[in-house]
Structures are given as structure tokens and as C-alpha cells.
Amino acid sequence: MSEPTTIRLYGTAADSIVDGPGLRYAVFVQGCTHECPGCHNPESQPACGGTVRAIDDIVDEIEANGLVGGVTLSGGEPFEQCAACLVLARKLKAQGLGLWIYSGYLYEDLLAGRPDPLAPELLACCDVLVDGPFVQALNSYDLAWKGSSNQRVIDLAASREAGAVVLWQTSDSFPEVPASW
Ligand code: SF4
């Protein structure tokens, strides 16, 4: 099967400082089946909403930006457009950009190929995963990079090496890189 050339987006933010450390380009995919009560982006849930964009146009836009230190894939649910996000992620990594990804699924499920057999490949392209659904009762504005305390900010490189979940730690050079980079 041929690779997707388009992706359905809820939107983008060219200068995000809330979707990971530093100045980042955030890509919000359209469509999410988790239906978390209190969802921060309920308009991003319908799979048929949003705008269809050419993946290469997004890559060109990020390359032309020149200011961002990394890219964050969020949503919506990136792993429910796994093939398109994988194409995008590979192109961004080829540019040397750091990549964070948010998901309502758990790391262990994604590693096991749920909800998409390509999920492990998409994880392998990313540096940090913020996982798990948003739980309104566990919401706090004091949490760094996540909305509720059940969610985990996972250092994927360290987790791959350890064969177990390693949480992301800020380094002395915060906010640019975690300690394991
Ligand atoms: S995973 Fe995120 S986008 Fe999806 S319903 Fe939950 S809070 Fe909303």
C-alpha cells in the first residue's frame, strides 16, 4: 500500500510554548475516539472535521519557520492517523527536529501495536511521549506538559534502552533537552 501524502488536521501553532519545552511547532491532528470528559479540544474529536493538508506542505512550513527547536504532534489523537503521522514524523526527524507526541493511549498499548500496527514505528521516531487519557478529577495547572496527574511524560530513548518506562527529566540546560539526550 502506498504511503499517505495528506493528513487531516484540527490546526497548527507555529509558536507554541505549552506543548513541550522551548519554542515548538505544534501539529494538532483531527479525530479522537477517547471522549475524555473535560477535553481541552472537543472540536478536534470528530474524525471527519478539520482540514486535509498535504504532509509535504506542513514540512515545508516548519522548515521555513526556522525558529522552532522542535515539533509536537498532538490532537485529536495522532495514533488514530498513524500512517500519516509516521510519514510526517520521519520527514521531520530527517530535518534533525526533536519530536514530542501526545496520545490518549498508554505507552504499553502503543508498543503492542494498538490501535494501529504502525504505532511502534511512530513511537520509534519520537523523543518524548505524553500518554494516557485526560482525567478531569486529576487535572492540575501545576503539572508540566500534561493535563492530569495520571499522564506520563516518557523519555522514549531512555525507555527503549532500559526496556521499561523511564520518565522524562529536565536537564541543566532546561528547557531545551532532557537529561538523557
Ligand atoms: S485524548 Fe485528548 S483530544 Fe482526545 S478526548 Fe481526550 S483530551 Fe480530548
UniProtKB/TrEMBL annotation:
Decide whether keyword Nucleotide-binding is in the record.
no
InterPro entries named in the record:
Aldolase_TIM, NrdG, Organic_radical-activating, Radical_activat_CS, rSAM, rSAM_sf
Q: Which Pfam families match?
A: Fer4_12
Gene3D superfamilies linked to this entry: Aldolase class I
Could you say which enzyme class this protein belongs to? oxidoreductase
Enumerate the PROSITE patterns for this protein: RADICAL_ACTIVATING
The family note in this entry says: Belongs to the organic radical-activating enzymes family.
What the protein does comes down to: Activation of anaerobic ribonucleoside-triphosphate reductase under anaerobic conditions by generation of an organic free radical, using S-adenosylmethionine and reduced flavodoxin as cosubstrates to produce 5'-deoxy-adenosine.
Classification via PANTHER family: ANAEROBIC RIBONUCLEOSIDE-TRIPHOSPHATE REDUCTASE-ACTIVATING PROTEIN, PYRUVATE FORMATE-LYASE-ACTIVATING ENZYME
As cofactor, the record names: [4Fe-4S] cluster
Task: Specify the protein name.
Answer: Anaerobic ribonucleoside-triphosphate reductase-activating protein
Q: Which reaction does it catalyse?
A: glycyl-[protein] + reduced [flavodoxin] + S-adenosyl-L-methionine = glycin-2-yl radical-[protein] + semiquinone [flavodoxin] + 5'-deoxyadenosine + L-methionine + H(+)
**Which keywords appear in this protein's UniProt record, sorted alphabetically?**
4Fe-4S, Iron, Iron-sulfur, Metal-binding, Oxidoreductase, S-adenosyl-L-methionine
Q: What is its EC number?
A: 1.97.1.-
Question: Which N-terminal residues, if any, form the signal peptide?
Answer: none
Q: Which organism is it from?
A: Raoultibacter timonensis
Domain of life, per the record? Bacteria
Tagged with keyword rRNA processing: no
